[in-house]
Amino acid sequence: MKVLVVGSGGREHALCWGLRxxxxxxxxxxxxxxxxIAETAxxxxxxxxxxxxxxxxxEKLQFDLTVVGPELPLSLGIAxxxxxxxxxxxxxxxxxxxxxxxxxxxxxxxxRHGVATARGIACAxxxxxxxxxxxxxxxxxxxxxxxxxxxxxxxxxxxxxxxxALSLFFQERVFGAGGDRILVEEFLSGNEASFLAVCDGQxxxxxxxxxxxxxxYDGDRGPNTGGMGGHSPAGILDAATxxxxxxxxxxxxxxxxxxxxxxxxxxxxxxxxxxxxxxxILEFNARFGDPETEVIIPRLQSDLAGLLMAxxxxxxxxxPALEIKPEACAxxxxxxxxxxxxYEHGKPIRGVNEAAKMAGVEIxxxxxxxxxxxxxxxxxxxxxxxxxxxxxxxxxxxxxxAAEVIEFEGKHLRxxxxxxxxxxxxx
Length: 427
Ligand code: AMP
Ligand code: GLY
Known about the structure:
Elements: E1 2-7, H1 10-20, E2 27-32, E3 42-43, H2 51-61, E4 65-68, H3 71-75, H4 78-84, E5 89-90, H5 94-101, H6 103-113, E6 120-123, H7 126-136, E7 140-144, E8 153-156, H8 159-170, E9 182-186, E10 191-200, E11 204-206, E12 211-212, E13 215-217, E14 221-224, E15 229-232, H9 239-259, E16 265-275, E17 278-285, H10 292-296, H11 304-312, E18 328-335, H12 352-356, E19 361-365, E20 368-371, E21 374-377, E22 381-389, H13 392-405
Parallel strand pairs: 1-2, 1-4, 2-3, 4-5
Antiparallel strand pairs: 6-9, 7-8, 7-9, 10-11, 10-16, 12-15, 13-14, 15-18, 16-17, 18-22, 19-22, 20-21
Adenosine monophosphate (AMP) binds next to β7, β9 and β17.
């Protein structure tokens, strides 16, 4: 099989790594890829937002399967473009991906289909938002309707907070058109977990659970990032809760999407809050998570290409039950100085090869480039250092040992990944 992966981050590196181990994959390409991916796939210089160019390439090079990482090409309709040309792609259509691209749409959809979620009110102006906040009470959560790279969610605890936040949305318009409509949402407390399922429109196969550490500093402090680390299993979801997630969240969503003509093929990634009243959905993503993918794929023993192909063809019911390594996997993200604010580029990186040789360690490139013959930093999240071991704690310790060996100016990382994970309770 000839396979193309679309994207250029740590998630796509992990996907390429997993696909390379597949018995079915003869040739592997990535558009545009990165220096780490280039060690395992042929990189094609097309950016992931150029969906027509990618489809042209896929047609010319006759790929059997294309796997999409990021949300941008999905929201631009890459799946529709491929389907129009009769080519096989793993990822949802533009209308199915709206479950991620519009928070107001998602909230109204959850209500229509009885999916367990927080109460929420859609608002198109400051005065509507003021009224909704009065109704909701403090604390509550304000969310930009559109894609905002995880930065469009603000928790407000007082009238003063709310004034400041609403000014960001409606006056300063820092989220652009994505913040012209907002959602005022009930604040939920509990633990967060990531629950990803591979879907073929009718069937859903849950992947191992994972946990993502979104805040930049230890102890979940500071601003949100794209993800500072994670581990699989999540360590906080037992088997009974996982089956509630399938029954109360995943299935009604998949069925609802189909009933509304938005048949979903791809990864449904549920960002969950495990509350005292049970699991509730905070948001769905229509794609693989990052860094969740980097900790899930190393645990997957089933053939990744076979799984994604079965989903893309609507044949998941014929795919054998997933085989998962009992070992845990943890990831520590090494970030560039300044991230998640403005960050530095072009700092030489040392020690990657040494770190990669350590037992159980795999290193995925997120934001790197080659300058001359040096590997340098080229993104906010630079490298994702992962390790597998019998427990989450041991996996994290191994990942930290490897992370120590890698050096670049300004490097920063969280030091508490896996520290509060407890014992693994489920897959
Ligand atoms: P989202 O983009 O909707 O996943 O939100 C980003 C982050 O904001 C989540 O990972 C949570 O930490 C937090 N968050 C979102 N919605 C809520 C909520 N209703 N209650 C409490 N925290 C929330
Ligand atoms: N781990 C967060 C995300 O992929 O959106």
